[in-house]
Amino acid sequence: MNILIVSIEHPFQLIEAETDTVELQKEKRSLEVLLSEEIERRKVQIILEESSPAKATIAKCLADQSCPPILWRNIIMTKEERQAAGIADALQNRPSRPDDAMERSIEKRIPADAVREDFFVAQILQATNHDESVLVLLGDMHVVPVAEKLRARGHNVDIRNDLVPIKRWE
Question: Which residues of the chain have pLDDT under 50?
Fold first, then answer.
């Protein structure tokens, strides 16, 4: 399987809203261009995305607008799945610190992240065949661990992390 994992910050993946700042609109357009180019270049057959189930995403819109439509699936770990895996409390109480500009939080990786990444890998493998071209959108902190796990299973994995130049986790 050929997989491209695109590193995102979750607000970037949502379709544009009137309340978006100019900077956020720019980031969303950059993501849309990147995804459109990669979908065409790689002949993507399935898009898997870690996203809020209640909000429309750019990737979902692109999948629906493709001719023929591209299969799209949300691979988020639900609250119930997090509780069943015993990681809900740990994720809810994740340690963090303010960034240098005191504008955002820097999250710390915790063991529960590895559980979520195993879940993402299982969802990716379950949703695809071995001969497909797959596009996956994940929050930045999960990209490299998921890529490494998929490579260990013999899949070709590329990463695009150019839209997230500042690491917001440690």
Answer: none
